[in-house]
Protein: Ribosomal RNA large subunit methyltransferase H
Amino acid sequence: MKYRIILIGPIKTSYIKKGISQYLKWISKFQKIEFIEIPLSGDLNKISPEQYKLNDYNKIEKYMENSINIVLDERGENFNSIEFAKKLDKFQCYGKKYITFFIGGPLGHHQKIYQSADLIMGLSKMTFTHEMVSLFIAEQIFRSFKINNNEKYHY
Ligand SMILES: C[S@@+](CC[C@H](N)C(=O)[O-])C[C@H]1O[C@@H](n2cnc3c(N)ncnc32)[C@H](O)[C@@H]1O
Structure:
């Protein structure tokens, strides 16, 4: 099984880039993980919000096959880190090729994505940037491996 984090939009902030690379490196000691940045869907002033989100969805739909799909959304279900770790552990037994985390673009996700979601998960009720969510989820995935392997994690 392989983990994937898929996000709409590039990561431009250097300290976030650095943080994500660090967590991906640490996670890879436990599990293969891939970080995929999908280019933005054009100019927001030239296409309707509906079309913009649909363009995003069309680019990521292919990643939903043979995968446990976790859609990140501030309106989603909240877990503490132990609950999240247990959930991931359970998902690993489902026999799918991937566990994929989907992070939306500036307008959020198109509604179509929710139909194929195995889990809609919120990190908080607050809205964060796609960059921050990428960093937070990478850290929580790493934390979940530490928890599931009974390893100490001090920070
Ligand atoms: C800038 S936000 C988009 C906000 C957009 N207005 C909406 O209503 O979805 C970009 C993406 O970050 C993720 N995100 C932002 N805050 C989040 C939170 N608290 N929990 C989980 N995901 C979040 C979601 O995937 C969202 O689509």
User: Anything to note?
Assistant: The pocket of S-adenosylmethionine is lined by residues 72-74, 103-104, 106-109, 122-124, 126-130, 133 (CB under 6 Å). The chain has one domain: 2-10+18-119+130-148.
